[in-house]
Amino acid sequence: MMRIDFHPVISDTIKNYTKEKFLADLMAGIIVGIVALPLAIAFGIASGVSPEQGLITAIIAGFLISFLGGSSVQIGGPTGAFIIIVYGIIQQFGIEGLAIATVMAGIMLVLMGVFKLGTIIRFIPYPIVVGFTSGIALTIFTTQIKDLFGLTMEKVPADFISKWIAYFQSFGTTNWIALAVGVGSVLLILITPRFSKKIPGSLIAIVVMTIVSYLLRHHLGISGLETIGDRFEIKASLPLPNSLNFNIETINQLLPAAFTIAILGAIESLLSATVADGVTGTKHNSNTELIAQGAANIVVPFFGGIPATGAIARTMTNINNGGRTPIAGLIHAVVLLLILLFLGPLTKHIPMACLAGVLVIVSYNMSEWRTFKSLMKNSKSDVAVLLTTFLLTVIFDLTIAIEIGLLLALVLFMKRVSEVTRITVSKEQLDLSHEGEILHEEEKLIVPQEVEVYEIDGPFFFGVANKFDECMKTIGDKPRVRIIRMRKVPFMDTTGLHNLESLVRLSEKEKIRIILSGVNERVHETLRKSGFARMIGEENICSNIHEALKRSETLVSQHSAS
């Protein structure tokens, strides 16, 4: 029976928890909660939902991820990476469609953790991660142009190119007060670190610009500066859970989007946890973390929330302010809950241009342009994956980008492996120098007449099978025995096995015998299970080249005698 790798860090934390640790976690949790406030509101609105839904996601998901997670310092909540995919799902399937897709993604994440795929997720090629992260950043920036400039537009087009065409046609309607508020917010965020490392620039920008907006509207009579209250109604309470209408048709339609949310959530949360490990010197449990992320995404949609994952910026804020246990994450969720309940109505005065400024900074930080630039100097295959993923994310959508990016990376990987795998042929003499199979003092072995030795150096899978066929066809005279050395074959797939079976059948017709040499236990087991070992005969599967050559001599003698 499979054992589930689920062990929340908080269960170990409570055993040795002290007052000093609590005070450190309390301070960190309060600061992270304050940092998360403007981001949760901004991410909620940019995703196409209300600001309170962004806050509810940060509260519920943040609590569950810290309570169930496999990282001691991970902070969960809505992140910029999900904005584009969430907005697209809402446009096509509505809020309920988003909720169903998020629940499905949560189930996928739990299954990833249950089947211990936490470590496999890390093998997704880095150019893909950078490609779609940079693509998301550019797309987020693009979505904020309307609010940043205060443009008057009936409807903003969905796709990237049409958006910019519409923007250029509407720049004549720029609201200069809104633009000043947006640019002022960006400048405040940029200069805040020079004066304060503790208080986030985004919070200062929101407080200052909200006061400015209030004074302009209510004391100077200047209208036209749109605020959250003009677009949304804020409810200062946690909603009751809603039911969701699941059916096969909806599930089939939302499966690609749910897969994208799950993959993106897994990558971002494990990347965040890995970065945190490097700073704190701890080690997270990736499978437990995936289960926690999945549980959060299963629960949150029933309360109107959006997809959530581990957030690198908030996690680093937690670490830098002394948080070292999941209690800090729980406190951050409680702080956000108190803000929602007691200060929620005040958020209606926040200017939309200010939130646009906050998201401009978020998109810049996400862009990783320096990393993007350095990756452009790598191999052509890496550059192809990077640019393909980036352009597909920007021009089409994240679902297509991830699927095609992964497919392209897989094809390029198989191409590289097939290029690395070598097939050599030896006649008359076999050089054993620098080999681990030498059982005697000689460095060279005599290959009997009418015997050929083929060596496969690397995995024997479908990408190499045709290469092996081509190598066989180039040989002139037909031997009596073919020895296939497989000591450097770590695994064999179904196509490789089928290729060997075809070779044996064709060789039998030509009265050529096949001997395998140096087969490792894993490959040998594959041959047994498939019935190939019986087909060729166990006596023709030799442990090393010496046995294989002796066996070949015997077979040649038998053939000559007959």
Structure description:
Helix 4 (83-114) packs across helix 12, helix 12 (248-280) runs parallel beside helix 14 (312-320) and helix 18 packs antiparallel against helix 19 (398-420). 45% of the residues are buried. The model has no long low-confidence stretch (mean pLDDT 87). The longest helix has 33 residues, at 248-280. A 5-stranded mixed sheet has the order 3-6-7-8-9, sandwiched between helices. It contains 24 helices and 9 strands. The protein has helices spanning 9-13, 19-46, 51-68, 83-114, 118-121, 126-143, 145-149, 160-170, 176-195, 201-218, 228-231, 248-280, 286-299, 312-320, 326-343, 352-367, 369-375, 380-395, 398-420, 462-473, 494-509, 521-530, 532-536, 545-561, and strands at 76-77, 309-310, 422-426, 429-431, 444-446, 451-457, 481-488, 513-517, 541-542. The protein has 562 residues and is α/β, with parallel strands linked by helices.
Question: Which strands sit side by side, in order, in the main sheet?
Answer: 3-6-7-8-9
Query: Spans of 5+ residues with little confidence (pLDDT < 50)?
Result: none
Per DSSP E runs of 2 or more residues, the count of β-strands stands at: 9
What is the CA-CA span between the terminal residues? Answer: 54 Å
Percentage of residues in strands: 5-15%
Show the helix and strand layout.
Layout: H1 9-13, H2 19-46, H3 51-68, E1 76-77, H4 83-114, H5 118-121, H6 126-143, H7 145-149, H8 160-170, H9 176-195, H10 201-218, H11 228-231, H12 248-280, H13 286-299, E2 309-310, H14 312-320, H15 326-343, H16 352-367, H17 369-375, H18 380-395, H19 398-420, E3 422-426, E4 429-431, E5 444-446, E6 451-457, H20 462-473, E7 481-488, H21 494-509, E8 513-517, H22 521-530, H23 532-536, E9 541-542, H24 545-561
Parallel strand pairs: 6-7, 7-8, 8-9
Antiparallel strand pairs: 1-2, 3-6, 4-5
